[in-house]
Amino acid sequence: MKFNFYSFGFQKILKKSFLPLFLISLLIVLWGNTFTPVTAQTSRQEIRGVWMTNNDLDILRDRTKVQEAVTKLQQLNFNTIYPVVWNSGYVMYPSQVAKRLEIQPFVFQGLDGHDILADLIDKAHRQNLLVIPWFEFGFMTPPSSELAMNKPEWLTRKKDGTQTSISAGGEVSWLNPFHPQVQQFISDLLVELTQKYNLDGIQFDDHTSLPSEFGYDKYTVALYQQETQKTPPNDPQNPEWVNWRANKITEFMVRLNQTVKQIKPKMIFSVSPNYYNHAYKFQLQDWLNWVRLDIVDELIVQVYKENLGHFIDKLSRPEMEEVKQKIPAGIGVMAGLRTKPVSMQQIQSQVRAAQQRGLGVAFFYYESLWNTAQGGLTERLAGFKSLFPYPAFRTAVQSREWDRKVESTPGEIKVESTPEDTNLTVTDQIPF
């Protein structure tokens, strides 16, 4: 019988090494399962945000409650807070711009007389949360506000001469987005915020727009006649008239982006509109072109639908597929209202539908996250923890710091961008 020394020796070594090798393999598997999802989330810059509204002021004004809020959000693996800074014609921070224009006879302060925005930013950053202040009211302002009463020439109107519409915020007037003084006012607020606070970004939502019925004020009519040699049509949905006004709002958004990037190139320029067909036709917001023109760093589309099928339909639109290939994109999910709570089951089904399509989420709004009318607090906390089992850290955008020149005609917008370190000129030309 021939003795196989190699076979015999290998078997002995294998028997002695089996347990250590098994333990090492097990550790590798567990280590990989623990950390791989974090890497994946980080690379996608997944949005896990929540808006903090006027309804959350009792929290924002209290240092202790703010600390508890940001700690809870960090523990549940959220990564972004969108606090309101512009609502009902008033700013939520000490503003020299508002003081100079005499449109705000008071200052929102904390219980200790402190700056509530500065306090939130400081505490949130200590928990690795981004803070992106939110211009909630955009061009809206109540007709009784000091802004509307002191600056009547800034307001636009409908064809019949009326100046207000009914919104979720009640009866509102609309600042004329085409008026240079209105544009300068919004830009001044933006500059003030950007220079005064350690922001991670700024967000404009569906109210940085204009209902399509408006735009028949004297200034806008004269501007339209000057540029087109035509009188605005009686039909507010006339395609040429819609395009011209949407084009003007786009030009303004490009300039706002330039303003931000010149001060802080890495700030996130965030937009949270309605779904595209509605936003363009009825609110003159051509946000898909904003993305194509490279002025949007993140997009969160508001989809406040109870029916899951209708919700998923808005997530699956071609424009959403296009946007998420370019920038971080998410869906605004309704977490409830004071008069209308939303179940954890509905929240979970909508968030998972978004996640399955590579989209992040932002909840409207903070207080309603913990609404226990449909389930206890323990259930709500466990529900959010199950949706976000791993952290998803976010960072500020890496700006190219390009100089931009905007040119427009009634039919198109052209943005020429020239990187400082090359002689290349890139032109994005988007037909309307």
Automatic annotation (TrEMBL):
Domain Glycosyl hydrolase-like as annotated: residue spans: 46-346
Keywords in alphabetical order: Signal
Range of residues in the leader sequence: none
Gene3D superfamilies found in the cross-reference section: Glycosidases
InterPro entries the record matches: Divisome_Glycosyl_Hydrolase, GH, GHL10
Any coiled-coil regions, as ranges: none
Record's keyword annotation contains Signal: yes
Organism: Dolichospermum compactum NIES-806
Superkingdom, taxonomy of origin: Bacteria
A Pfam family of this chain: GHL10
Protein's recorded name: Glycosyl hydrolase-like 10 domain-containing protein
